[in-house]
Amino acid sequence: MISLKNVSKSFGPVKVLQGVNLEVVEGETVAVIGPSGGGKSTLLRSINLMTPPDSGSVEVAGTCLFRKVAGQATVALRPADLRLARQSIGMVFQQSNLFTHRTVLENVVEGPLQVLRSDRAAAEKQAHELLERLGLGGFGGRYPRELSGGQQQRVAICRALAMNPRVMLFDEPTSALDPELVGEVLLTVREIALTGMTVIIVTHEMSFARHVANRVAFMDGGRLIETSPSATFFTDPQTDRARQFLAAIRDPFGTHTVTEGV
Amino acid sequence: MIDSFFFWLAEMDANFAQSLYLFLQRLPGALWITLQVTLGACIMASLLGFPLALAERSPVRWVSVTAKILVGIGQGIPLPPLVFLIYFTSLSLFPATPTQAATLSIGIFTMPYAAAVFRAGLRAVPEGQIEVAKAMGMPPLTLIRRVTLPISLRVVLPSLGHLAVVTLLNSSFASVIGATDITGMSRNIINANFSTTLWLVVGAVYFLIAFPVSRLLLRIEGRTNR
Amino acid sequence: MIANWASYAGELFEGLKITLLVTLVASMLTVIWASFVAWLRLGRNRILRGIAIAYIELFRSTPIIIQIFAIFTVLPSIGLRIPPFESAIAALVLNAGGYLTENVRSAFRSIPEGLTEVADALGMSPYTKLRRVILPQSLKVMIPVCANTLLFILLTTPFVFLVGLQEMMMKANTIQARTGDYTVFFLVSIIYVVLSLLVHLGANVLERRTISHF
């Protein structure tokens, strides 16, 4: 469903992505974890070209969105084609970024009406169903500022789903939230994952990565260090760097010595 | 108390009653010229200031730097020399009436301030909302119409109103190059009749336009900020 | 153009000196006057507060030209004769006061209370607290206020040629009337741009100095 090959990106002298390869099959949920500044968000943003890579290739749902590889024809979509491709890639950001001047319902139907040019009645019906499903029935007429952070983030998820995307990208959707609001958002993401949606989520929530994701992609220093099934990643990481990272998370005060499988 | 003050002034100023009569008679026409200069200058300042504000945000460095320098220079020029400069320049190019020359020069004078207003409006749109719209594949014009404009207009419209009030006050300088706006018309009457007391009435006319408008704008802003 | 400019540079320079003198004197008086009005405006006395508000609104809602004419012609007609220089200063100070009182008020509000609390928590003596915390903070907020005042007055001084004061704008008018060369107004505009740039730069340098100085 998603195929990244040898993707590299630099911001000035800083190499944020260095030859990253990642394949995600349809219906899979992949959690991207790792220390801050490791290139996780940039990787996610390169999938829908919100941050276009410098080189490598990006393919989503059988369409090549970007290719700049020596010896192959370069692919750079025209703006209109890029917009068309983005319509089938839903993205949820760290901040909910709801349109502050529009109600919850207006936020959710904005994409279908203004981008997909859907019929208003159908778009509103679908929006109501989505809001209902995510436990936000009855919030349609409210303004974003009247909602809690967790509710806002769930509306943002609804807004992305309303475009009927083939893929959902979540960029640290819970890291701007108060701790007690994290759960409701992660449960929502899990529900979406369970419907068979292809999901890539950048997150610091290890229990989510462990229990919901099928696979874990561990990134550090702009490289994809390790990609393992989540069942084995947390019990038996294959690389030293991943072991150190997991040890630091579990035992920040260093009272136990670093050993496997603590 | 104010009444008796005016009567006292009127006694001092024998021609006051006649001057006031003339003033009131000519006020509608003069008011029309004042409004022409004010609105004309505001529209011109907006038409020039908006692209300037866009240019200030341009990712192309020389464009943004040039725009910023232009705005900086513009905010350092006082109204009087600019009006005279543009008045005489336009006279040498085409037969400009004082009203036209005044509108042109006050418009150019107001341009950098209008650019600052638009800059604030553009800055008021949260980056994240634009990012979301781009991520869902919204075309640029739709994005401006559905996201940028609704948010920035809330900031821009009241500020443009305040700018219009300031421009109304500045428009009185049109009289110095011979326009018969409220100030110019009054000056003619006062010079002919030596009735300087009339200046207080002229001031009151400007006050009666500017003050209620400012108050109204403040109230509108209070509502949108809540 | 340049040759013309050179021929009357001396005359303009005479005017520039008066412009600068008027600007400096009026700016200093404006800071004092605006602080005084801000104090009335924040005070407890309802009548004084009302007078302050009425003054601010009156001078913000009438053109400076009318204010200048009113001061220069109405006052003499009721027996108060004021020479051009003093009239000009009075008009500038009264006009700028209407705009800058709010400025002074918000500047003093912007002094963070937390810092004096930190000073207390550190156990500073009142003298140390004044020298190390309160003075630098007040100066820091007053520098932009003074710079604003200076800029505001600078850009308003060319209006006072209307009372016949021989400042730069008046000189330019005389030169234009005599020689017909209206590019003199271009030269005057450039001089004003340079002067306001200098005020900006000066304020920036001073602001940086006060932060590191105390």
Task: Outline the structure in words.
The complex is a heterotrimer of chains A (about 260), B (about 230) and C (about 210). In chain A, about 35% of the residues lie in helices and about 25% in strands. Chain A is α/β, with parallel strands linked by helices and about 260 residues long. A six-stranded mixed β-sheet of chain A has the order 7-8-9-3-10-11, with helices on both faces. In chain A, strand 10 (about 215-220) and strand 11 (about 225-230) form a beta hairpin. Chain A is globular and about 55 Å long. Chain A starts with a strand and ends in a 12-residue tail after the last helix. Chain B is about 85% helix and about 0% strand. Chain B is built from nine helices and no strands. In chain B, helix 2 packs antiparallel against helix 7 and helix 3 crosses helix 5. Chain C has about 210 residues and is mostly helical. Chain C contains eight helices and no strands. The longest helix of chain C is centred in the first third of the chain and has 41 residues, at about 1-40. The interface of B and C includes residues 77, 80 and 183 of B.
Strands of chain A, total number: 11
Q: How would a crystallographer describe the biggest sheet of chain B? A: none
Count of individual helical segments of chain B = 9
Distance between the termini of chain A: 35 Å
Overall shape of chain A: globular
Helical percent range of chain A? 25-40%
Helix content of chain B: over 70%
- Gyration radius of chain A, to the nearest Å? 19 Å
In oligomeric terms, what are we looking at?
heterotrimer
Approximate strand percentage of chain A: 25-35%
Residue-averaged pLDDT of chain B: 89
In which order are the strands of the major sheet of chain A placed? 7-8-9-3-10-11
Shape descriptor of chain B reads: elongated
Q: What's the order of the H and E elements of chain A?
A: EEEHEEEHEHHHEHEHEEHH
Query: Termini separation of chain B (Å)?
Result: 40 Å
Number of strands of chain B: 0
Low-confidence blocks of residues of chain B? none
Low-pLDDT parts of chain A are: none
